[in-house]
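Re: export button greyed out
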Amino acid sequence: MDILALVAASFLLAPLAAWLGGRSSPLVAAIPASLFAGFCAFLPAVRSGRTPSEVYAWVPSLGIDASFRVDGLSLLFALLITGIGTLVFLYASAYLKGQERLPRFYAALTLFMAAMLGAVLADDLVLLVVFWELTSLTSFLLIGTTPESAEARRSAQQGLLVTVGGGLALLAAVILLGRGLGTYSISEIVASGSAVAALPAAPAIVVLLAVAAFAKSAQAPFHSWLPNAMVAPTPVSAFLHSATMVKLGVYLLARFNPAFEGHGLWVLLLTSAGGATMVAGAVLALRETDFKRLLAYSTVVSLGTLVLMIGLPGEMTALAAVAFLFGHALYKACLFLVAGIVDHETGTRESTALGGLRHAMPVTALAAALGAMSMAGLPLFFGFLGKEMIYETILADTWWPALAVAVVANATMVVVAGIVAVRCFLGPRVPTPSAPHDPGFRMLAGPVVLALLGLVFGVAPWIAGDTLLTFAAQEISGRRTDVPLALWHGFTPALALSAMTLVMGVAAFLRWDALRGALSRVREIDAWGPDRGYDGLLAGLQRLAVWQTNAIQNGSLRVYVGRVLATVALAGAPALYLLGGVAFPAPDAGWLRPDLALAVALIFAALAVVGARGFVSGIVAAGMLGFAVALLFLLNGAPDLAFTQFSVEAIAIVILLAIVGRLPFRQQDARTRRQRVRDGGIAVGLGVSATCVLLGILAMPFDARLSDYFRAASVPEAHGRNLVNVILVDFRALDTLGEISVLGLAAVAAAAVIAGVRRRMSEKAS
Amino acid sequence: MNSPIFKASSRAILPLALLFSVYVLLRGHNEPGGGFIGGLIAAAGLAVYALPRGRSVLVALIRVWPKALIGAGLALGLVSGLPGLISNAPYLTHQWTFPGGLAVGTALVFDVGVYLTVVGAVLTFLLPYLED
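Workaround output, generated via the alternate export path:
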C-alpha cells in the first residue's frame, strides 16, 4: 500500500502544486520534499537486502498487474527525483515568479515527477510503458512552456516525436517479452536470467529496448532533441533534461542488464552507441557557447558514458555506472541551476559574453566552482570517484577503444567545467545586459546544497555507498558486490589516467577559443547532423500527407461518398466468397405478411429518390424512404429503433430546412452521362452486395446465446425491461460512452469546419 | 423562415417537445425511449424554435453555448461510472438504490449524459446556420 500511496499521492498533489505554484509560494517545494521523506523510509528495508513490493490486479484477463517494487536501483532514482525535485520546485518558485501560465507549469512539473516515480517503481512492463509515455508527454508540455515561440514549439515536438517513437519500440519489446515468457513482471523476467536471452525473439527485443532507451537518453543519433530542449525554462532543464528523465533510458538498460548481460548484440549495441554518443557529444560541446546548450551536450556525453558502462559486463562496471550516475545528477543539476541564475541575473547565457562574475555573485560562484570541480573529476569530489571507477573497470578489461573514448569524454568535462566556473566567474568583469547579484535563498539553496553534497559524498562516499549505491549496482549486475566505494585507491594506473585527463582538459580549455573556432568551421556537422535529418524526415512526411490528401480527398462530397460506397460494395464480395458464397435462407412459410406492402412502398420511395429532379424533392423522397424503414422496424418488433429513426428523420428535415436557403443546393443535377452511369453502377453494386450479405446472414443459424443472456439478465441485474436501452446505458455503457464522445467531437469539428467555410465566404463577399 | 405561422406554432411546439423528451428519457429503461431518442426530440423542438428566431435567442434560452452541453453530457457519462469503482466493480458498473421500490441508479445519470450530448451535438451543428 505504501508504494502505491506515494505514487498516487504524487499524481493527486498536482492540483495543489498548481495552486501553490501559481502564487509562486515556496511551499510548493513541500510536495516533493514530503515524497522524498516518504521514500527515505524505504532505506532501511533496502539496506537489509529486502525489496518491498506490491501487486494489485489491473487487467487480470491479460496477466497485467499494477505492481510496484522498491529495490536499490528504483529507490536511488526515486530519491534523486524527489530530492532534486524539491530543490528545483523551490528554485522555480523564485525563478519563474511573475511569469504567465504558472499553474499549468507546476501541474505539468508535478505530473512529470509522478510519472517518473511510477516508471522507476513499476514492476510490470505495461505499467512501465504507461508511465514512460507520460514522462514524454509532460516533457512535451514543459519544453513548450512558452508556446508563442516557434523554436519552443519545434523543440517540444521534436522531443515528443523522438521519445514517443522510442516508447513505441519499448511497447513492441514489452509485448515480445510478455508473449515469450508468459509474464509481464519485470522482476520475474530479470530473475529468469538466461531464459530471456534464449528466446527466439531475443535479438529483436534487445534492439527494441536499446532503441527505446537511446531515444529517451539522447544517444547518437537521437541526441539532438536534448540540446534543443534547452528552450525550456531552466528548472525544467535541470530537472528533466539532466537529472531525471534523460536517465530513464539508462534506467531501462540497467534494469534489463541482468537478463541480457554478455549477450553479444546487447554488448555491441550499448558499447558502440555509448562510445559514439560520448565522442559526438564531446565534439558538439566544444563548439557550443550557449551556457545551457553547452551543459546539455556534456549531459549527452555523460549519458553515453552510462550506456557504455552498462554495456560492459561485470559487477564493478555496474558500481562505476551507479557512482557516475549519482555524481552526475548532483553536479549537473547544480550547474544547470547556476546557469539559470546567471541567465536570470545578467540577461545572457552566452558564455563568451560573461566573465568576472565572482565579485557580483560570490555565493553563486562558490556553488559553481564546487559543482564544476566535481564535474571535472577533481579529488575530494564525488565526480572524481565515479570517473576513477570507470577508468579502473575499463583498465581491468584492457579494452583500449573504450579507454580512449572515456579519456576524451572526461577531458571534455574538464573543459566544460572550466568554461562554466573559470571563464564566467573568474577573470576581468565583462559588462552584461543587466547588473547581476546573488539571488535569494530560494534560488541559491538548490545549487549550494547539491554542490556541498558532491563534496560531502566525495569525502565520505560510504554514506551513499553502503546505504544505497551498492544495492543499486547489485540490481544492474545481478550480483552482490563487496567492493566498498572509496575516494583513495592508491597510486594506480587509473590515477595516472585521471591526471592525464586533467592535463588534457586544462590544455584544451586554455586553447578553447581556437578549438571552438576550428570545430565550428566544420560546416558538415550542421549540414548533415541528425537535427537536419529530422527536419528532412518531417518535411517528407508532410509532403506525403499533402499528396495523399490530394489524391484521396479532393474536396467534392460526391466523390467522397462515391468512393466510400464503392469500397463497401467491393469489400462485401471477397468476404462472401471466402465464407462460402451466396446463400439463401430457407423460405419462410408465412411470407405473405403486412410487411410486404411496406416493401413495395420502400421500392417506390427508392425509385422516387433516384428520379428526383431537384434538391427539395430529393429530400422529401429520402424522408419517405426513412419513414418507410422506420415503419418496417416498428412492425418487426423494434420500437426503439423505429422511434429513433423517426426522430432522426425529423431532425434531418429541420437541419436541411435551415441549410437549404444558405448553400448552393438548388441547382439542377449537373452530372454528365458518364458520371451518372458510374454513380448508378456504384449504387447497384452496393445494393447487390448488401442484399447478398443480408441473405447470407439470414441463412446462418441464429445464435441466441447473447440475446438470451440479455433477456434473462436485464431485469435482475440492470432493473430495466427495455433491452435496447439497458444494453446502451448498462451492459454496453462503455461503448455508448465512446459513441457519444464521437458524436460530440464530430459536432464540434463540423461546426468548426462550417464556421471556417462561412468566414471565407463572407471574406470573399466583402 | 420568418413566417408568422411557423413562429407561432414553434412556440407551442417547444414546451411540448421538451416535456415529451423528458418523459421519453425517463421511461426509457422500461419502455421504448431513452436518452438518445429524448435528446433528439428535445433538439428538434429547440431547433424548430430557433429557426425563425436566430442564434442569440437560442443561446439566451438554453443559457449556455451548445458546445457546453456536449461537455456536460460527456462529463456526466464519465462520472456516472465512478461510483462502481468504489465498490470495487469494473468502471461503469451501475449502482442502484430502491427508494419506495423504484429502481434509481447511476444508469439514469449516464442516460441524462447521453441526452445532453445529443442535444448539444445537434444544436452545435445547427448553430452556424442560424441567423445572428
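The helical segments of chain B are 4-27, 35-50, 55-62, 66-80, 82-86, 106-126. The button fix ships in the next patch.
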